[in-house]
Amino acid sequence: MKDYLSKAGNLLLVLGIYVYFSAWVYVHSFYGHFGVSPATLGIDYSAYLVFSFNVFISKPFLVALGVFAVLGLVRMGLAIAHWKAPSFLTRFRLVWLLAFMVLLFPWLFYVAQTAAWNDYTNERLNKGTLRSVQFVFRKDSDVLYPAQVLDTAGQAGQDLLQDLRLLKNDSTRLLKLLGESDAYYIVLSQRPVDPVVGALPIGFVYFVDKKDVLLAKITLSSL
Question: What is the reported pTM?
Answer without folding.
Answer: 0.79
